[in-house]
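Researcher: For the record, we're logging two predictions in this thread. I'll number them. Prediction 1 follows.
Model: Prediction 1, sequence and structure:
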Amino acid sequence: MTDLDRLAKDRDAALRLTPVSRETAARLDLFVEHLLKWQRVVQLVAPSTLQEIWTRHIADSLQLLPYIGEAKELVDVGSGGGFPGLILSIAAPEKKFRLIESDTRKASFLREASRIAESTAEVYAERVESAAKRISTDIHMVTARAFAPLPKLLDLTAPFLERGARAAFLKSQDIDEELTIAAKSWKFNYQLRNSVTDPRGRILLIETLERRS
């Protein structure tokens, strides 16, 4: 089986897990093609996952779509190679995403990939702390994937969550330990959901956040 055959097989598997419209799938094809070109000079994903980019990265991101609900204004922190924020923006073009990525090379990729895949996402090439001060719009939802341990992630996203935004974070099997540590500094209402792409992964949904005094 050639690399192209493996990639096509992985694409089919991903779209069975997280179905999207034909138009969205076509825009995601453009995104993948662009990412594979950039990957030669900037590591956007682990090289070992390239042949599984659809299941490991795209479907993993798309599984957050049902949890976004009615949110219209969203922030994705540590967007990196576009996961999950840019993928969600491609799949839900009616929503306004702001992608925060401090690595300037990755931010350049995000801007170009957004344009090619017909996303309206806005890219902030700066740290989360700085971007949070500049985003004045009321944010309804915050997303993140493999960005930081939960205690640090809550510190960074608190400017949005303490103003009423909800969160949907893709987390690993270490989430129970992270929740225990985070609860020492924060009060938060949350739910955990199983990942559809990784038996060890979890989706952490946070409804409210308040710093402990």
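Researcher: Logged. Prediction 2.
Model: Prediction 2, sequence and structure:
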Amino acid sequence: MATWGEFEAASPQIAGAGRRLFTELEVAFIATVSRHGRPRVHPFCPAIADGHLWGFIMDGSPKRRDLEVNGYYAIHALPGREDEEFYISGPARRQSDRVLREIASAAMSYDDADDRHILYEFLIEHALWTTWENFQQPGMRPVHQRWHAADSGPISLA
């Protein structure tokens, strides 16, 4: 697993696309798995600060319960410039440190993270940046760049 800063150092191009999309779009989708094994998708506002990927989740939210049960997530941001998307997955860990809450809160696009919001750090195991050649034209095809925490850099898959 890698923090956002470690991911960014290992794969600056893919991480740069993710940072840009998270910043431009402000809302991504987070997928979690319920205790019954059912997948769920929820809107989510991620933020990058101090070399970490953060998110506040309401205490009573199904996605918070899911993260407490198995800890794994996938986050998908689309459609950037309409011809790209970004996906990451890995384990999430709950953070209760007041200083970390302040750092994460300052980076958020909204201003209402109170004590009902639980702070999570999202570690990165896999990342996928997809761009589209010939977008909405004949011959349109995806170009994938992947990163895995165990790898030393991006893998381009045309």
